[in-house]
Each structure stands twice: as structure tokens, then as C-alpha cells.
Design brief:
Blueprint lengths: L1 E4 L12 H4 L14 E11 L2 E13 L4 E8 L1
Antiparallel strand pairs: 1-2, 2-3, 3-4
């Protein structure tokens, strides 16, 4: 559905927010510049409202050799 960096302006349109991708990172790290994000599916609760919703994505950091899989329905 979408790919880019979690810091891209279009990321929020697909439910991608930097804080959701980095639960184990220290707050002082610049995590937004490390991951290429691939959204496989995303659906907000209401159009334009990500207070609730669902998505599945993959985030890749070649720099740190990290691969994250995330699926959430909240």
C-alpha cells in the first residue's frame, strides 16, 4: 500500500508513527532516519482518524541489521 520512511509526511496517512515502530529504542536516538517502512495493510477506525485502526507492516534497517514485523488491531 505504501513504502517510505516513518518520518515522511505521508506516513501518518497510513497509520505509521515513529513511536509505534521503536518501543525498544532509547528516546535520544534518531530512529526515524533508520527504517524503511513497507505497509502491507492499513485501515483507520474512521477515515483520517487513527485513534483506533489496524495495520500490518515491515520496517527494515540495513544500517543496524534489524527487521521488524508489526501487526496491530486496536
Amino acid at each position: 500500500m505504501w513504502s517510505g520512511r516513518d518520518s515522511d509526511a505521508a506516513a501518518a496517512e497510513h497509520g505509521v508513527y515513529a513511536g509505534a515502530l521503536h518501543p525498544f529504542d532509547r528516546p535520544d536516538t534518531d530512529a526515524a532516519k533508520r527504517y524503511d517502512v513497507y505497509v502491507m495493510f492499513s485501515k483507520p477506525y474512521l477515515p483520517g482518524n487513527w485513534n483506533h485502526g489496524e495495520y500490518s507492516l515491515v520496517a527494515v534497517s540495513e544500517q543496524e541489521n534489524k527487521l521488524l514485523f508489526l501487526a496491530s488491531d486496536w
